[in-house]
Amino acid sequence: MSSTPNEPAGSDHPKLNPGDQAEPGTPGTGENLCPECKGSGRIGAMPCPTCGGTGKVIEGIGGA
């Protein structure tokens, strides 16, 4: 079974938000501030849809 942003609860994969490029802990990735909400976790009065309200996204780091 592959990981999707809306995987059911109880799955052995962490929930990914739309802005995540990989699961947390994946080698070569790290947390970054969400580019949409600038780390606040909110857009107006609503949770940010890109980061799921966390203010963080998982992105690839470094490398050439």
From TrEMBL:
* Name by which UniProt lists this protein: Molecular chaperone DnaJ
Q: Which organism is it from?
A: Microvirga flocculans
The record ties this protein, via Gene3D superfamilies, to: 6.20.20.10
Q: Which domain of life is it from?
A: Bacteria
Under the heading InterPro entries, the entry gives:
HSP_DnaJ_Cys-rich_dom_sf
Q: Where is this region: Disordered?
A: 1-36
